[in-house]
TrEMBL record:
Pfam families for this protein: CBU_0592 (PF26604), cNMP_binding (PF00027)
InterPro entries, sorted: CBU_0592-like, cNMP-bd_dom, cNMP-bd_dom_sf, RmlC-like_jellyroll
Ranges annotated as spanning the membrane: 6-25, 37-56, 62-80
Keywords: Membrane, Transmembrane, Transmembrane helix
Sequence ranges assigned to domain Cyclic nucleotide-binding in this UniProt record: 98-213
Domain of life: Bacteria
Name of the protein in its database record: Cyclic nucleotide-binding domain protein
Presence of keyword Transmembrane: yes
Length: 234
C-alpha cells in the first residue's frame, strides 16, 4: 500500500513537472532550447515512467521512455555545443566589445560564419558610395576613414567597420583603408544573409548590436566636431 502511494506520488510529481515546465515556456520564463527545460522534462518523464510500475500502461510507458531518450539526446547535444562555445583571446575581445547582447551560442554561430584575416597597408575595407560587402572587426593595426578627399577619423583596435550597411548592402558613407598592418574578423554580406535565412532571430539581434555600435560612432563623431568647433571659436 505504501509503495503504491509512493508511486502515485511520483506520477503526480511528474505531471507537476510537465505542467510547470510548459507553463514556464509559455510565460517566457524558460527557453525551449535551454538545459533547464530539457532537465525538467527528463525528470518528469522518469517520475511518470517509474509510477507506472503500480499500474502498468504500455502506451504511456512507450511515450515516457521516448521522452527520456529524446531528453538525454538533447542534453548531450547541449553539452557538445557548450564545448564549442569557448572563445580564443581575439574572439573573447570581440564578444566583450560588441557582441555581449548575444547568447554565447549565437555569438559562436556568428563567428563561425566569418573568418580571421590579415590586412595589408592600403587594403580597402569599404569604398564611399559602393555597397558594403563585408563587416570587419579590428583586433590590431589601424585604418583611416576618408570622406571625399578629407580624412575624418582613425580607427584602431576594437573598431567595427561596415555595420551601417552590411545587412542591406547600402552604399558606404566613407572609404576605409588600412594604414598599419591589421588583424581582423571579417564576415561577408552573403554569409550574413545565409545566417539570417537559417536563424532570423539572430539576424534581428545582430541588427540591434550593429545599431548600438553605429550610435556610439555617431556620438564620438559629434563630440569630436563640437570640440573642433570650440577650438576654432577661441
Amino acid at each position: 500500500m505504501q509503495g503504491s502511494l509512493f508511486l502515485d506520488g511520483l506520477g503526480l510529481l511528474g505531471a507537476a513537472l510537465y505542467l510547470g515546465s510548459y507553463a514556464g515556456l509559455q510565460f517566457g520564463v524558460i527557453r525551449g532550447n535551454s538545459a533547464l527545460y530539457t532537465i525538467l522534462n527528463l525528470a518528469a518523464s522518469l517520475a511518470v515512467l517509474t509510477s507506472l510500475f503500480s499500474q502498468w500502461n504500455l502506451s504511456s510507458a512507450v511515450i515516457q521512455t521516448s521522452w527520456v531518450v529524446i531528453s538525454l539526446v538533447g542534453l548531450t547535444r547541449l553539452w557538445l555545443l557548450q564545448r564549442r562555445l569557448r572563445f580564443d583571446d581575439a574572439e573573447q575581445v570581440f564578444y566583450e566589445t560588441h557582441l555581449g547582447a548575444l547568447r554565447h551560442i549565437d555569438a559562436r554561430r556568428f563567428m563561425d560564419a566569418g573568418e580571421w584575416v590579415d590586412l595589408a597597408v592600403g587594403e580597402g575595407l569599404t569604398t564611399e558610395g559602393a555597397p558594403v560587402e563585408a563587416l570587419f572587426f579590428l583586433v590590431g593595426g589601424e585604418a583611416r576613414v576618408m570622406a571625399g578627399s578629407q580624412e575624418v577619423a582613425r580607427l584602431g583596435e576594437g573598431a567595427l567597420i561596415g555595420e551601417f550597411g552590411v545587412l542591406t548592402r547600402a552604399p558606404a558613407s566613407a572609404t576605409v583603408e588600412i594604414t598599419r598592418p591589421a588583424r581582423a574578423f571579417r564576415i561577408t554580406a552573403d554569409a550574413l544573409e545565409t545566417l539570417g535565412d537559417r536563424n532570423g532571430e539572430l539576424l534581428r539581434q545582430l541588427s540591434f548590436v550593429f545599431a548600438l555600435s553605429g550610435q556610439a560612432k555617431l556620438a564620438t563623431s559629434n563630440a569630436r566636431l563640437r570640440g573642433s568647433s570650440l577650438d576654432a571659436a577661441r
